[in-house]
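I am still getting used to backbone structure tokens and would like to learn alongside you. To get us started, please write out a protein record for me. Once you have written the record down, we can walk along the chain together.
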Amino acid sequence: MYFRLAWEFLRRNKEYAIQVTQLLALPASAREKGKIGDGKWCLDTTICNPPALPKETSGDYKKRMKNDGVVGWKIHKPIKFFKRRWCLEGPVEPNVEYEQGEVVFSTSIQFKRGKKDGRIKEYLLPNEFVIKFNAEFPVDLQLEMARNKLLEFIKEKRSGPEGASTASHFSRIQQDIYKRAPFSLRCYDALVSGMVTAKEVKEVLGQEFFKKNKLLKNKRQKSKKGTSKKVKESFDVQSYRRTADQFINNKKYLRLIFQAVEHPNNVQDFINAMVKGKT
């Protein structure tokens, strides 16, 4: 049920909710084809080359491109941009439950070859990059080189301000995120609501879930004298909230999508404990 877990994180993303609302409000011709139409639809729902201004409409963008003498400007199809940004086949409103069957994640890798003149027209998102392969070179060697380049790209992204703050935290919890996710989400929902304190959340979840399901682990703690003793792992509400925040707002949910592809039969019973908004 990795797909369902991924959806629970994604549906809480505010930027996702905004884009879905904007996308569903567009005329079909604009949403599917990127056509200018009456020129009144906002380009915040897609990407343009050159970039559009914030809140700029399709009609104003076209007029600006002509006035500036820009040749070859392009408005990309909003639905295509949506699929690439969120890895979903189509827009689904956040209040839709996964069991309704509308949520379909996309995990395909795009394959493109050059046109007759050798050109490839493609606009890359910040989390994308292109690797060029040669059909006449050894396949295994190219795949290994591509893998190394991809790892370099990922490392570079993580070393930035955003990646540095999340990598260490995620590495601590990734092994059992599938067991702890319901608690992370419930901590997140409760604290974001502002109706309860972290102390109150700890009291409820600590008793209701951790003790009942025996998820708190014993760990050895060294003293100053060099001796060690077993102590109970504490339930850090803010830590669990931060974990959820990374999966929601930094697109860590994508890890769950590809985990589902790798382990399609790994069904988690704990998902039944996940109730949106419940504390």
Q: What stands out?
A: The longest helix spans residues 139-158. Residues 161-175, 263-279 have pLDDT under 50 and may be disordered. The chain has two domains: 2-108, 175-273.
